[in-house]
Design brief:
Elements lengths: L2 H7 L2 H13 L8 H13 L3 E8 L2 E9 L2 E11 L16 E3 L2 E3 L3 H20 L5 E9 L7 H8 L6 E4 L7 E2 L1 E2 L1 E10 L14 H16 L15 E9 L9 E10 L5 H18 L5 E5 L10 E2 L5 H14 L5 E2 L7 H7 L4 E3 L14 E3 H19 L7
Parallel strand pairs: 3-6, 3-7, 7-16, 8-15
Antiparallel strand pairs: 1-2, 2-6, 4-5, 5-17, 9-14, 10-12, 10-13, 11-12
Helix pairs in contact: 2-4, 2-10, 4-10, 6-7, 8-10
The protein binds zinc ion (ZN).
Zinc ion binds next to helix 4.
Length: 397
Amino acid sequence: MDSNTMREAVTPRETIELLKSLVRIPSVNGCEEAVALWLNDLFQELGLETSLYEVEPHRPAVVGVLHGKRPGKRLMYTTHFDTHVTDNMEIPPFKPEIRENRLYGRGSCDAKGSIAAMIMSAVLLQRTGCDFSGDLLLAFVPDEEYMNKGTTELMKQGITADMAVVGEPTEMAVGFGHRGCTHIDINVTGRAYHSAFPERGINAIEHMAHVITALRSEYFPTYEQKHHPYLGHPVINLGLIRGGTRIHTVADKCCASFLRRDLPGETTEDILDGIQGFLDGLMARDPKLCAHASLSTIQQRIRLPFFMEPDHPLVSGLSESCRRAAGREGEKQVMNYYCDASILCTESGIPTVIFGPGSISVAHSAVEYIELDQLADAVYIYADYAMSLLAGEEKTP
Ligand SMILES: [Zn+2]
């Protein structure tokens, strides 16, 4: 189908109106029920087969299915409708405004823009009477921003597919990988004592200062030797530190929490063993030092890396769809952020790509917006991609 036919079937204005409606329904992480029910109603109006799946009480995911004319493969278009909080915002979060060809509001790019474009791509297939086989699933979930419970639950309930696209803001690049995340706590134990005799205690905070300096200068640089051709090397950031109990006591405890971005093939065990091995070396040199590395209590699920070969047909195919539908090949990129692609692909074995309008640099920010040109193009790209993946082919039983 040529690009003009598509642009006549669904106008950019319709997609903008849909996105405005979505932004107007607050759905900050934890309070997503209203938007899920609204989407369920919309799917019914559109004639899709629609179902709600309880992720937690009052936190449903919604899945709409557009059936093709013959049995075939299942393509899942998916993303999240929960948004980041709004307290730091400098614009009205839920009153969508259009200025300079951008739509402003919370969730406009992360990820309601992708939701609007994915839905309108299905509408486009309906309106043009597109002859395709298999199913196009529109699966929208709560709780991506915090614990990724939505997609995890859908996988648990057996909502599966042969291939998937995660709609996160990629600025129209085709995302084929991201690193995983491990939250690590290092606990240093000392000995409390009256502050008048600091030499009689063991100061855990001072020991921690030494541990951090040593890790940063001697151990963390070894991560740079672990090289992945696309994802680079692991990086680690110290994000939190807590220590001591009161000012007049030698601090007996200190905990430093790190977030490490991991590569495919690295296991949690290897990561922790590597750090502990280095700490053991420090302890051998200083018998008073007691330092232990463990998975942080903050981390409630293992967040694995996601990676597809950049020449995989699903990756190249989406890049081609960008060229056909929007006149410019989609640049293949790895993403700097973790998303549900990990759960779909790495954990559940569904070949997946990440693609969506908007820039991650304004997601979660005080002024979130989406470029309307990207929003419009995304509809035609998603539609072209669905047509190319589901065209004709019948699945052998
Ligand atoms: Zn997102």
